[in-house]
Write a structure and sequence with these properties.
The complex is a heterodimer of chains A (about 400) and B (about 290). Chain A is α/β, with parallel strands linked by helices and about 400 residues long. Chain A is built from 11 helices and 15 strands. Chain A folds into 2 domains: about 200 residues, Rossmann fold (3-Layer(aba) Sandwich), CATH 3.40.50; about 130 residues, Rossmann fold (3-Layer(aba) Sandwich). In chain A, about 45% of the residues lie in helices and about 20% in strands. The radius of gyration of chain A is 22 Å and the shape is globular. Chain B is mainly alpha-helical. Helix content of chain B is about 70%, strand content about 5%. Chain B has a two-stranded antiparallel sheet. In chain B, strands 2-3 form a two-stranded antiparallel sheet. Classes of the chains: A alpha/beta (about 400), B mainly alpha (about 290).
Chain lengths: ~400, ~290
């Protein structure tokens, strides 16, 4: 009996190994089908599985839509795009492996990585190899380690100062509580800049409380501190998973309903399965992308995304879409061709990046532009959650 | 009034740690192994309740019943497949196996339920209790959690001290070989321990997710480790110890967060643990280990 079981386990293991190899093999034959030199090879890296999978899948799908559109309309400089997405499970080491896999495949431009921590270890590789890299969503300023690394999303400090400005200018509140994740560079980056800017604008920070990765279930203490301090607005520079608990504990258990103000990590809260969206009613957030916008390009993107993937796209999908179009725009302006090497393409594209301006889904009226350090310049939109949907505040 | 409200939150969090810690401590006391997959059994229990209430629209209590049965069976299966073949192996091999089972359950949940966070509907929907003219609000789930913890503890103590099967457990934990010679079926006793521990895990999971309503494949991991700490704190192997350790851990965590630093709350908890272990290496209620010559 025991032997039979172990034989079965071994068989199952061997089969799964074979299946893994099989998957790899088809991918590489798929890549080899088109002659090198006649197509552009764009690689992408992000977490398609694991705890951060929601971001990686959004980027994967958003980029796919952009690439399908471009290929249908004749490609970049007349050449089609081949697209290869590699999973890094939000892990720095796996991300480097994914980068090397893509390099072997013949990648010419990189869209990625999706999350900040892996990006910090992949960006130096791209700089070393001189491969053009644009991250849709790694928001720390630290990822911009070389002239050939660009960002589509806001940097963390930028989000913090814009949030404080917005709150002060619209007189949303004068007493402010903060709950942030001290174990996360994203959260602390936004929070530090927010505090600085809030003080400059005369806002009073009545409570400034942290939580860590290891104790992110109970927020009643942090909320109580904000409540006791009389905070009229609680700023949440955190991801939506924790925010959903905070909203429930504040509104249901404590009967405390200040204005909750989030940043782009809050985007996604309405898609949490089984979440009581009435709890999110009135939550405000600054985000570069609102799926309900009546902008024609946004509507067409949302519709395509829903048809193909069954979800309403979040800003990560939109950032990825814009990232692909930024690559297209820069490649066309630089006049690169698929037979050039990744290094030649990179040099040509880096030179023209500060000159391009694309409208994009996340650019608002003024569009997206890049500085020569790789930072994006675009306007955030303030949205408020109303009847379970995002609504623009303007 | 703030102090009272922190204390209540601490008791609520501590009660959940205590129920999870009971599972750790029972398995350790009887099978002499650390079942690191315990936290993940909790997570599986939560997913069962979530699926039953959301996809099959069952009554929350009925789904809790199903989850208890499911986890009990799961616990017994894990023991049979993963741990029993290693009964004679050294402790390190068993520990690594337990970590392996933990990863297996997490990744299984990832494949079956996906990685995105789900919001768990509390099994008890009621208005919070308002005391002291609105200054003190106590969520009903908090009261239920603390009460369930006390009831479970008392029932376990009764079971172990009064029933035949409980006596067999005690005997196995004292001396496995002697118990076997006296006619106690060691394998069945260990299976029963896993069954009870895993059934409790389902209850703990539902209480955990009702109070802190997010559910992901990693939901059980951190509370599992904290509860393990609580079990060590109270004296691993001792049932009242797990209870006291759990409650203390929860209260210290919340108080530390409220009055010292919200950033350092975990550091404070573990600092207290280190001090306790320095003074009393077997934990608060642990029995001294006698070296056999």
């Amino acid at each position: 009996m025991k032997k039979l079981l172990s034989v079965m386990m071994v068989m199952a293991f061997a089969l799964s190994m074979l299946a893994g190899c099989g998957g790899g093999a088809t991918e590489s034959t798929g890549a080899g089908s088109a002659d090198a030199g006649s197509v552009f090879r764009i690689g992408a890296i992000g977490p398609a599985t694991g705890a951060a999978a929601i971001y990686g899948s959004a980027v994967k799908n958003g980029a796919q839509i952009a690439i399908d559109e471009i290929n249908e309309n004749g490609g970049i400089n007349g050449a089609q795009i081949e697209y290869n997405f590699q999973d890094d499970v939000h892990d720095a080491e796996k991300s480097k492996n994914a980068y090397n896999t893509l390099k072997d495949w013949g990648m010419q431009m990189l869209l990625g990585t999706v999350t900040t921590t892996p990006c910090l270890s992949v960006a130096p590789l791209a700089v070393q190899d001189n491969t053009f890299m644009i991250t849709p969503s790694a928001s720390s300023p630290d990822v911009l380690v070389g002239p050939n690394v660009f960002q589509v999303c806001f940097t963390d400090p930028n989000q913090g100062s814009k949030s404080a400005e917005y709150i002060a200018e619209n007189k949303l509140a004068t007493k402010i509580g903060i709950i942030y994740n001290s174990a996360d560079v994203y959260s602390t980056g936004i929070k530090d800049k927010f505090v600085e800017e809030a003080k400059a604008k005369g806002l009073e920070i009545v409570s400034d409380e942290a939580f860590t990765e290891d104790s992110k279930t109970d927020f009643t203490t942090q909320l109580k501190a904000a409540q006791d301090g009389g905070a009229e607005l609680v700023f949440l520079p955190i991801y939506y998973q924790e925010a959903s608990i905070i909203l429930k504990q504040a509104k249901k258990d404590m009967g405390y309903s200040p204005i909750f103000f989030g940043v782009d990590g809050m985007d996604g809260i309405l898609t949490v399965e089984n979440f009581d969206t009435s709890l999110a009613e009135g939550v405000m957030l600054l985000t570069p992308f609102a799926a309900d916008s009546d902008d024609e390009a946004v509507q067409s993107f949302v519709q395509k995304y829903q048809e193909q993937y069954g979800d309403v796209p979040n800003q990560f999908a939109a950032d990825a879409y814009d990232g692909i179009y930024a690559i297209k725009e820069a490649a066309e302006k630089a006049g690169v061709t698929p037979d050039m090497s990744a290094q030649e393409i990179c040099d040509a594209m880096v030179a023209v990046m500060p000159e391009i301006n694309i409208k994009g889904l996340t650019g608002g009226d003024e569009g997206l532009q890049w500085s020569d350090t790789g930072e994006v310049n675009k306007q955030p939109k303030a949205v408020v959650i109303k009847d379970g949907k995002y609504e623009s505040m303007e | 009034m703030s102090f009272l409200s922190y204390l209540i939150n601490g008791l609520s969090l501590g009660s959940i740690y205590a129920i999870i810690a009971l599972g750790y401590t029972m398995v350790y006391g009887i099978a002499k192994m650390l079942n690191f997959a315990h936290g993940d059994v909790i997570m599986i229990g939560c997913y069962v309740v979530f699926t039953m209430t959301n996809s099959f629209h069952l009554d929350p209590l009925a789904s809790l019943g199903i989850a208890i049965v499911f986890c009990t069976v799961l616990g017994v299966c894990i023991e049979k497949i993963a741990y029993r073949p290693l009964r004679g192996a050294n402790a390190l091999a068993v520990l690594i196996t337990a970590i392996g089972v933990s990863y297996f359950l997490q990744n299984l949940a990832l494949i079956v339920f996906g990685s995105d966070t789900k919001s768990f509907t509390s099994i008890i929907e009621a208005e919070p209790l308002v005391l002291a003219g609105g200054k003190l609000k106590i969520p009903v789930i908090t009261i239920v959690t603390v009460l369930s913890c006390v009831v479970i503890m008392a029932a376990l103590m009764l079971f172990i001290n009064k029933s035949k099967a409980g006596q067999a457990m005690l005997a196995v934990s004292e001396d496995r070989d002697a118990a076997q010679l006296m006619g106690v079926n060691v394998n069945n006793t260990i299976s029963l321990t896993f069954a009870i521990g895993s059934g409790l895990a389902a209850i703990a999971g539902v209480l955990l997710c009702s109070a802190y309503p997010t559910l992901s494949p990693y939901t059980g991991a951190m509370p599992g480790i904290k509860a393990f700490t609580a079990a060590v704190f109270g004296g691993i192997g001792s049932i009242p110890g797990a209870f006291i350790g759990g409650i203390l851990l929860g209260v210290i965590e919340i108080m530390g967060r409220a009055y010292i630093s919200s950033q350092l709350s975990d550091a404070i908890v573990f600092a207290v643990l280190i001090i306790v272990l320095l003074v009393k290496p077997t934990g608060i209620l642990g029995r001294p280990i006698q070296e056999k010559v």
